[in-house]
């Protein structure tokens, strides 16, 4: 049988599309992806994803291989998090789903509370605010201390009879520091409230950091009062995307997470996660990665990532125009422009991109200025990064900060996004340089994003959200002529 000529065309188109994406290997993309540099492991994990892509985790009795691999992964994680023999876990599609389930389970464990709430530090990942929005749980957001860690006393004071969950981070995404889990968990336990530790980004780093002799604040199930922990396999577990673990101290704590329904004519639905159908691909990819890397491998990867983090932190400290927000507890760093430096961090991001480094900008929040955010991988070349950062800072100072027109800034601060229609959002998108590009006058991603980020930075959070939603909505519309 002759090969289908469409196959080569599809492969070529896939390669063409992927050429426009950020690189997922090489350690120069310091957000979204995490690179172990282990090509053989990556290749075998991709084989596993493909081999099990059609398997369905909906029914573990139909695909027992997936159940075996999931239980193996939970078992591997048990020693990492000081889990008791009673610890159980669930593989989810990612950190956000793990966080959502932690909130949903806490809510459903307390049917006696009609208007439930959760208490979180202002640095908690936005996934918990998403969970509160989805599940009708009121989020009580507590300011953090000057060290950017959750304030345990303020957290305790914020709890009341409606509280079903308290959250701490290990570490927080924005600043990379571990919250005082011991004190927060004790306060939660004193009120009979669940305490979840969001270790999605640190859970596959901190256990080995401790073994390497680094100081690590307590955050695991060894802390009394911690009832659940989330940690992602597709971050520093270096597994293919689509894999996170949600761990519970006991089966009884996990049980409200399950959804079951026999109230219809079809099969009795039984789900452990937000999904019903679950591809076996991510399960097999994660299992393969963990089996291949193993304990000693993760120890080495963690050593390399933390060493690179230390070198980058020292490099940032040596640049007069930048200030490290706080000493990192893990592999995340944030840096801001030094007062009076005449530096615009958004322009620094553009200059780094021109040198083939992705550095994530974080907009200002309250009295916290805009910052550069880095997630360092085992393959990140710290020396090359600092060299590029020095050049970028010098270029950004020479260019000067982006200045938003005062009239535009005033309009943005006074704007009520609820009053805008599509035409109004188009005006904002065009003002930000995101609309009007190309021959058709449609959406356009400028090569440099500093002006866009500067405009968003002066806008209140609600306006930022509305503008970005409008932008995503415009992006997510198929072309009139159909796909190529």
How would you briefly describe this protein structure?
The chain has 484 residues and is an alpha/beta fold. 42% of the residues lie in helices and 13% in strands. It is built from 16 helices and 15 strands.
Could you explain the architecture of this structure?
- There is one protein chain.
- The mean pLDDT is 94.
- Helix 11 (345-354) runs antiparallel to helix 15 (450-458).
- This protein has helices at residues 5-18, 39-51, 64-80, 95-108, 126-135, 152-158, 181-190, 206-211, 251-254, 280-317, 345-354, 382-399, 406-414, 422-431, 450-458, 461-475, and strands at residues 88-92, 117-121, 138-142, 163-169, 194-198, 228-232, 244-248, 259-261, 269-271, 322-324, 332-337, 360-362, 371-375, 435-437, 442-443.
- Among the domains are: 45-291, Aspartate Aminotransferase, domain 2; 406-475, no CATH class.
- Helix 8 links the parallel strand 5 and strand 6 (228-232).
- It is an alpha/beta fold and 484 residues long.
Salient structural properties:
15 strands, 484 residues, seven-stranded mixed β-sheet, Aspartate Aminotransferase, domain 2, four-stranded antiparallel β-sheet, alpha/beta, 16 helices
Q: How do the strands and helices of this protein lay out in sequence?
A:
Layout: H1 5-18, H2 39-51, H3 64-80, E1 88-92, H4 95-108, E2 117-121, H5 126-135, E3 138-142, H6 152-158, E4 163-169, H7 181-190, E5 194-198, H8 206-211, E6 228-232, E7 244-248, H9 251-254, E8 259-261, E9 269-271, H10 280-317, E10 322-324, E11 332-337, H11 345-354, E12 360-362, E13 371-375, H12 382-399, H13 406-414, H14 422-431, E14 435-437, E15 442-443, H15 450-458, H16 461-475
Parallel strand pairs: 2-3, 2-4, 4-5, 5-6
Antiparallel strand pairs: 1-7, 6-7, 8-9, 10-11, 11-13, 12-13, 14-15
Helix pairs in contact: 2-10, 3-10, 4-5, 6-7, 10-12, 11-12, 11-15, 14-16
